[in-house]
Amino acid sequence: MHGTLFPSRSPSRHAAHRLGPAPWPRGPRLAATLLLALLAGCAHAPPDPAAPTPWLAQVQALLPADVLLIGEQHDAPEHQALEREAVQWLAARGQLAALVMEMADSGRATDGLPRDADEAQVQQALGWNAAAWPWAQYGPVAMAAVRAGVPVRGGNLPRADLREAMRDERWDRHLDAAALARQHTALREGHCGLLPEAQIPGMARIQIARDARMAAVAAAARRPGQVVVLVAGGGHVLRGVGVPTHWFPGLTAKVALAQAGGAPGPQAGDADAVQATAALPARDHCAELRRAQGARP
Fold this sequence. Notes:
Blueprint: H1 13-18, H2 28-44, H3 54-62, E1 67-72, H4 77-92, E2 96-105, H5 119-126, H6 135-147, E3 152-156, H7 162-167, H8 177-190, H9 200-220, E4 227-233, H10 234-237, E5 253-260, E6 273-277, H11 285-295
Helix pairs in contact: 4-6, 8-9
């Protein structure tokens, strides 16, 4: 999946033989020998490091854009690897304006930290909650931006704002009826039918408010000629129900969705590109959730 599109060619054995030990050439013979040496050198040249992988070719095809949303499955390490790869590649080309992460709260950022800041400094700046978001998974994504001198900014709704969002009825009117029904269905399924129905509307308000906050942080980070990368769970980036529903006219955004094998695909129009990854080991999340609920006092 991550192999280059342009593999190096095997060197010619005949050319290598012709360029073996020989007297120092002169005149036309010198020119011919130098030409053969040049061709042999090209044959041995390593792959072009600038040549994009298939994943990066997809990213490249989505640009230019003000914001590139990369949707992930949180328990798929391959998805975080794709995010880091995109951050490194865009930053190396001077195209990355900022990295916005769902995994840190809005108001937290690495602005002002030097490129050589250590991981503890970055976690402190972002107010990182390692219990919720394992640093071993997400640290490499954030550090790739920091090492490139690109700011990392939290995009999530802080915990202190959740209760107010849950009571804010204006979020009930943000999505049309069909999109709001999708949100409600996703919440029911995501909680394995264990969430009381009376809690569904309030949980949907929180989800929509979180999307609005991520949209605002990403929009504020825009810079001319560059792209803001927003990393979030797959449900947050979908064009029909998530962050893109909060954009204002004139903002150009593209959606790339990483999808593990066997996961249900997005609806038409929800994503501009889908990057397939290997299926994850079988795991009964609902059984785990039921056990966790049963263990609560």
